[in-house]
Amino acid sequence: MTRYSAWSVLREGFNGQRGWDPAWRSPEPKPRYDIVIIGGGGHGLATAYYLAKNHGLRNVAVLEKGWIGGGNSGRNTTIVRSNYYYPQSAKLYDFSLKLYENLSRELNYNIMLSQRGMVTTTHSRHDLESAARWVGAMNANGVPAQMLTTAQVKRRIPLLDVSPTARFPVLGGFVQERAGSARHDAVVWGYARAASQLGVDIIQNCEVQGIERSREGRVVAVQTSRGRIESGKTAMAAAGHSSVLADMAGFRLPITSYALQAFVSEPLKPVIDTVLLSLATGMYISQSDKGGLVIGGGLDLYPSYAQRGNLPVVRNVIGAVVDQMPSLGRARFLRQWAGIVDVVQDSSPILGETPIPGLYINCGWGTGGFKAIPAGGWMLSHHIATGSPHPIAEPFALRRFFTGDLIDEAAASGIAH
Fold first, then answer.
1. In 141-258, which residue ranges form alpha helices assigned H by DSSP?
2. Do the Cβ atoms of 202 and 26 come closer than 8 Å?
3. How far apart, in whole angstroms, are the C-alpha atoms of residue 75 and residue 348?
4. For 276, which of 25, 61, 251, 374 is 20 to 30 Å away at the CA?
5. CATH topology of domain 25-109+183-256+346-413
6. pLDDT (tens digit per residue) in 120-131
C-alpha cells in the first residue's frame, strides 16, 4: 500500500492521480474469524487496528451494516478533550487525547487534529463555583486547566457578549489548552486503512441479524445479511444500537438511546479560534477548516433511534448562539444532522466482557464517543486479547451496576456531558 507523503502527493500529481491504491480492501466475508467486531465506526475500527498492531491478532472482521463511518462517527461535532472530574474518567479520556496527539503519524493519515483549546464559560455564582471545583479536580488528576476572568474570556472570544446586561452575562470560565477538534472522517478512514493494511477484513453492507450461542451459552457465530459467520470471540461497538444487539444476545444493558443534533453554518471568515462551551445553555461551537460554524447543544428529551432533528432543539440551540454572540444572528445554516447516543445512568462508558461468554462490549459513551475512539479501541482490544481488563478500563466494567461503584460525571461537573 502506498505510503502517504509530500513526495507521493507530488508524484501522483504528475501521474494524473492514477497510482493510488484503494484506502482499504473490500473482501468477501470468510466463514470464520478468530474475532468478529460488530460496528464499523471509529471504536470498532480502532479495536480491530489495536488487536492487529498491539497483539498480533489479524484474523479479524469488522462488520458494518452500512458504510464505514456512516453512524455516529460521521454525525458528531469533532471535539476532543479530557476535561473530566473523576480520576477514573480523567485517566481514560486523557489517555485517548494522548493517542490522538500522535495518531496522524502512527496511521500515516492526517486526522487534522487542531489543539486550539476549549473554553468553558460560567454565567452565575453557581457556575463559577462548579468551574473552580472542576479545574481543581482536573489539575489534581494531572490534566492541566486554568481559570479565566471575564476579560480573559473576551480576549479569546471577541464575538462573545460578556456585558453585565447580556442575556447570559459571563462571570469567567476555564480553559483546557490541549483540547480542540479532529476531522471525524479522517479518523475513521485512517483506522480503516491501517487495520486493513495489517490484514483485518472490513465488511460493509453487512447487517447483523442474529447472534448465535452454543448449548453452554457461549457466542459462536453471528447471522448477517451476507450469511453466517463463525467467531471465536465477538465484540459489539454499535453506540446507540448496543441495546438492540444485547437483546439479540439475550441480556439487557442500562442504556437509553437519544438523538443528539448538530448544525453547521455557511463558510465564514475566521471568527472563533477555539472551542466554546456555555454552562448556562449547553451550547458549544467551533469553526471548521472550511469556515463553517459547527454547533451543538443538549440531547433530545425523549428516547429515539431517529437520525433526524426537530424544531424545538433548533430554536433552543440557535437561540443560545444568537443570545451570546449577537453578531452571528444573520449567519445562514447549511445543514443539520443527528446521531444516536447511548446514555448510561452514570454518564460513563461500559467496556469489557458481558454476562455472555465470548461476547465483549464497548458502549455507553453518550455524547463523548468521538473523543474516546483511540482509548475505546485500545482498551477493548486489550481485554479481548489478554482476557483481562486494562487497568484504566477496569472501573468501567458492566459489573459496576451490580456492585454500586458508579462514576457520575454529570453530577460531578454540574452539567451533563
1. 150-156, 184-197, 242-249
2. yes
3. 20
4. 374
5. FAD/NAD(P)-binding domain (3.50.50)
6. 999 999 999 999
